[in-house]
Amino acid sequence: MNARFLLTLNLILTLAMLSGCSDVDDHDHHDHHDHEHEVMTTVILTFTAQGSGEIIEARWADPEADGSPVIDSIALLDSENYDLAISILNELEDPAEEVTPEIAEEELEHQLFFVGSAVSGPAGTGSSAVVTHAYDDTDSEGNPIGLANTITTDATGSGVMTVVLRHMPYQDGNSVKTGSLAADVAANGIDALPGASDFEVDFDLEVL
Questions:
Q1: How many degrees, rounded to 5, is the angle at CA 202 between CA 106 and CA 143?
Q2: Lowest-pLDDT range, 14-23, 113-122, 168-177?
Q3: DSSP letters for 87-136
Q4: What is the pLDDT of residues 99-137, one digit of tens each?
Q5: 10, containing H or E segment
Q6: Is-contact 184 122, C-beta < 8 A?
Q7: What share of the chain has pLDDT > 70, as a percent?
Q8: Can you tell me the distance from the alpha carbon of 114 to that of 118, in angstroms, rounded to the nearest whole number?
Q9: CA-based angle 87:91:93, to the nearest 5?
Q10: Distance CA 177, CA 111 (A)
Q11: What CA–CA distance (Å, rounded) separates 104 from 110?
Q12: How far is residue 88's CA from residue 32's CA, in Å, rounded to a whole number?
């Protein structure tokens, strides 16, 4: 099993028995109703070249939630800017359920981070960085979300891109998400963040 993927089958079964997410507060952001904690089995990265319009898709998929994911590698061209969109699915449902809209709705509780040896950006500089990440979306407080991004290829080479979705529930009715979280990751790592990671998945990335 991929040790970095944080949703185990036991956790999925436990959450399925709950009527709502255990970390849901009754603050106004949720319009005073509970919601089920979404199961996430599939993460899709869609790169669209800004110059040619070429689309490259890579996915991390564990559709049976059995700890045996299928992981695509990423191959990008040098000296190119790519729009990067993130989609998240629950493929335990039939048809597959799109989870991304819930993440967008709960924008004040979530942020995606892009780290790893191949990546330079707000969350730090990888040891063999060949791409630069920049956020292209913000929540209602002006802080990054990470569902829409720009990836710039800087040099040929290879490494790992790690994509992390962090869930940061309200505490005492107050948001704990701030604009400095990516810098906090750069300085102290993912574990320095409030909340817990919904997923943390690795992609092999090569710039050609």
A1: 30
A2: 14-23
A3: EEEETTSSSPEE-HHHHHHTGGGEEEEEESTTEEETTEE-TT--EEEEE-
A4: 999 999 999 999 999 999 999 999 999 999 999 999 999
A5: helix 9-16
A6: no
A7: 82
A8: 10
A9: 125
A10: 8
A11: 8
A12: 25
In the numeric block, the tokens 């689309």 are attached to: 55
**Order of strands, sheet of 110-115, starting from the edge strand that comes earlier in the sequence:** 74-76, 196-207, 157-167, 110-115
The encoded tokens of residue 43 equal 């993460």
Task: Extract the tokens encoding 10.
Answer: 């036991």
**Which of 203, 192, 207 is CA-nearest to residue 161?**
203
CA dist., res. 164 & res. 187, Å (int): 16
- The DSSP bridge pattern shows strands 119-121 and 124-125 to be antiparallel
Which token pair is 61?
Answer: 């998929």
Q: Residue 38 gets which letter from DSSP? A: P
Provide the 10 A C-beta neighbour count for residue 155: 11
Amino acid at residue number 103: I
Confidence class of residue 22 from pLDDT cuts 50, 70 and 90? very low
